[in-house]
Amino acid sequence: MRTPKALAALLALSIQPALAKEPSLGATTFTVYEAFLSPAQEPGEESETPKPLQKSLGATAPSTPRASRKSRGHGRIRFAKDLTKAYVDVRIEGVNPEDIVMFHVHCGPPGALGPVVVDFGQDTAASKLFVDGKFSTELSNENVKFVNHAPPGLKPALPESCPVEIGMPVQTKTLAGLEWLARKGVLYFNLHTKAHTYYGEMRGQLYVAQE
Any idea what DSSP says for residue 84? Predict the structure, then answer.
């Protein structure tokens, strides 16, 4: 049988407010996703670029088969837990920065092409993004883009960008939506060069970082 003191202690515990964390931790703690980039993750060879896109997206330098390319990379996206900011850090090897023509985060499962949701070369020439093989930037909602028109000759089924949930006609427009897509394993880095413009030089599917 419980004593009055024990009952009073239990009552006091039951009416204690739930322990909440310091709100500022939302901006200083992170959920981290990482990718190791390699040519092997590209779903096709440059020579397989669809004919309608060969003029607009075709390579301007001789291509090399995926199995023979030496390009490699590693990248991370750190989402602040309050989802107001995200930080991107990427390191590459075996690529001449002057040959880079585009660098993106796309939305799509492994082995499939998907639309661009973050364009790192929108404000800076892609060839200038990497210094000594390294690139870092900060993202906010304004950096999350979605496709509003199809490239010439390509007519994908709508919606043209990854929805937050399959079957929902809602396009990802926030870092919160971007992080949800990363959690589902459908975001990937894609680095495009003069020789590998359509599929890309190398690709890296993003997954939860393994510390």
Answer: S
